[in-house]
Amino acid sequence: MRRHLADLPYHLGDRQTIDVGAVMCKGDAMEKAQRELGEHVGRLLKSTIPIILGGGHETAYGHYQGVRRFVGPDAKIGIITIDAHFDLREAEPPTASSMFRQILETDENSSLLALGIQPLANTRTMFNKAEALGSRFVLAEEFAMGNIQQAQSVIDAFCSEHDAVFLSLSMNALSSLYAPGVMAPSPFGLEPAIVRQLLWHIVANEKIISFDLCEVNPELDEHGKTAKLAAYLLAEMLAAFH
Q1: pLDDT for residue 6
Q2: What is the 3-state secondary structure of the chain?
Q3: What are the backbone dihedrals phi and psi of residue 141, each rounded to the nearest 5 degrees, phi first?
Q4: For the whole prediction, is pTM greater than 0.85?
Q5: pLDDT by residue (tens digit) across 49-58?
Q6: Which terminus of the chain is more exposed, N or C, with fewer CB under 10 A?
Q7: Half-sphere exposure for 184 (CA within 13 Å, toward CB)
Q8: CB–CB of 87/100 below 8 Å?
Q9: What is the pLDDT of residues 108-126, one digit of tens each?
């Protein structure tokens, strides 16, 4: 049963959160690290709710590999990303900007819903690629116009079409006023209150089985502003999880 926003608790009750360690990526061993992350996520999904913290957004590919390992080859996987970018670039070897293309081009039982996409952060080629791969998206400017209910309807329809859905939040989706500590700051990014509403709505859906939060760079942060906001958003997700 879906919970209304007003009913969500601001505490985690008796839910226990355990740090199971880190996957280290050294040098050019990103693909190896993604496989290792996928193995851990696949095992954790058998008994708990994995939460992956990045790091760059390339963690989403390892996250996906773990979900696919868990649900099997025939299940339909939905990916909801809150991000300023599509991350559908052509890149060899793969990068943090290409992982969703990797997934969609090799897995016909997967699809993408991108929320907070910014036209100035994506080329026309990226929009064309998204269309060619059947991806759906909601522009950041649509949230600025107060269309949160319309986006929630899109989210609900997307989740209903899939057997399992995972969420990937990139902090560069948020306005750089609140999240300056990212590699690609977004002056026209989303307001934190909008992202919080989106998270509550998404994570409360029974199809969501795991989530990740990425793109926090302490070296670029201002007085820990981005890290603190990320921690608050993570707490909101934990509180909202079904």
Answers
A1: 46
A2: CCCCHHHCCCCCCCCCCCCCCCCCCCCCCHHHHHHHHHHHHHHHCCCCCCEEECCCCCHHHHHHHHHHHHHCCCCCEEEEEECCCCCCCCCCCCCCCCHHHHHHHHCCCEEEEEEEECHHHCCHHHHHHHHHCCCEEEEHHHHHCCCHHHHHHHHHHHHHCCCEEEEEEEHHHEECCCCCCCCCCECCCECHHHHHHHHHHHHCCCCEEEEEEECCCHHHCCCCHHHHHHHHHHHHHHHHCC
A3: -65, -25
A4: yes
A5: 999 998 888 8
A6: N
A7: 17
A8: yes
A9: 999 999 999 999 999 999 9
Type of residue found at 185: P
Q: With 0-12 CB in 10 A as exposed, 13-18 as middle and 19+ as buried, what is 169?
A: buried
The Cα–Cα gap between 188 and 173 comes to 9
pLDDT of residue 116: 96
